[in-house]
Specification:
Blueprint (H helix, E strand, L loop, with lengths): L1 E6 L7 H11 L3 E5 L10 H6 L3 E5 L7 E5 L3 E6 L12 E6 L2 E7 L9 H20 L6 E6 L12 H4 L7 H11 L4 E2 L1 H4 L8 E2 L5 H4 L2 E2 L2 E5 L1 H6 E6 L15 E5 L1
Parallel strand pairs: 1-2, 7-8
Antiparallel strand pairs: 1-14, 2-4, 3-4, 5-6, 6-7, 8-12, 9-12, 10-11, 13-14
Helix pairs in contact: 3-5
The structure holds one DNA strand of 15 nucleotides.
DNA sequence: ATGGTCGCGGAGCGA
């Protein structure tokens, strides 16, 4: 089982990159974030032509998540149980081939102390409550997506410049740790201990060309899934060439 | 470089 996570920054704008990428890599499951489209306008037929079933949870202009899978998708849950009717579309869960998958687009938070930052921290508390209520750490569960949080300074190209800044602050990391305490492990770190592995680069400062990225897209997996995990790798090739996303895809392989 | 570039939607916001 090979599962990919990729913040595509608009699924419709990224189709010219996404479709050939699917053809090349053929992952069994693909979790997309920032699809930026309502479900009625999701480019489902293009993805079905690539052999994928599609479940989406989107909204106009902002946010939006989707799961593509080459096998049957079951037990789809959109959003959080305590979401309001107009809640931001940031979570979708599904079961594929015995694997429970939760695909997340964690709020960015704007800047430390901002109203959006408080929303981010509260959202992570709601995520933990959702995990406690609807998931079991003894099952094979993969929680993946754009978490908009670095775990530690190995995930930052310039730790001094980002010290206690958004995506790197202690309260964010503590909130992520409380999510992990449900019984999740950072799957990439099973295979790679080194610093300098990044998944996002600021478009405004052409950060990819400068090698100035952060690792904020993660595979968080339960112990049974961690034991089955053979590899987790970032596909930097998807960031080169014409009109890439500002995030790289991450692919995890499971026995 | 307190700037810069995308995407959406058709001005300004979010990232």
């Amino acid at each position: 089982m090979r599962i990919a996570t990729w913040n595509v920054n608009s699924v419709r704008a990224r189709l010219p990159r996404l479709l050939p990428w699917l053809e090349e890599h053929r992952p069994d499951v693909v979790c997309l974030q920032e699809t930026k489209v309502v479900d009625e306008l999701f480019p489902t037929s293009y993805l079905e032509d690539q052999g994928y079933d599609v479940v989406a949870h989107g909204q106009k202009t902002y946010n939006g998540v989707a799961i593509l899978a080459r096998r049957g998708i079951r037990d789809v849950v959109r959003g959080f149980p305590d979401d309001a009717e107009d809640a931001q579309a940031r979570a979708i869960a599904a079961t594929i081939d015995g694997w429970r998958i939760l695909n997340l687009y964690v709020p960015n938070g704007a800047e430390v102390g901002h109203e959006k930052y408080q929303y981010k921290l509260a959202w992570l508390e709601r995520l933990r409550r959702y995990l406690d209520a609807a998931f079991c750490a003894d099952d094979q569960i993969v929680v993946c997506g754009d978490f908009n949080i670095t775990f530690d300074d190995r995930d930052i190209h310039d730790p001094a410049a980002w010290h206690e800044q958004i995506l790197c602050s202690t309260p964010e990391r503590d909130a992520l740790r409380r999510v992990m305490d449900f019984g999740l492990f950072d799957a990439l770190r099973k295979h790679h201990a080194e610093a300098g592995i990044h998944t996002w680069w600021d478009m405004r400062t052409r950060a990819f060309a400068r090698g100035a990225g952060l690792r904020i897209d993660h595979f968080l997996v339960t112990r049974p899934a961690l034991d089955a995990c053979n590899a987790v790798d970032v596909d930097l090739d998807a960031c080169r060439g014409k009109s890439p996303s500002d995030h790289a895809p991450v692919i995890a392989s499971f026995a």
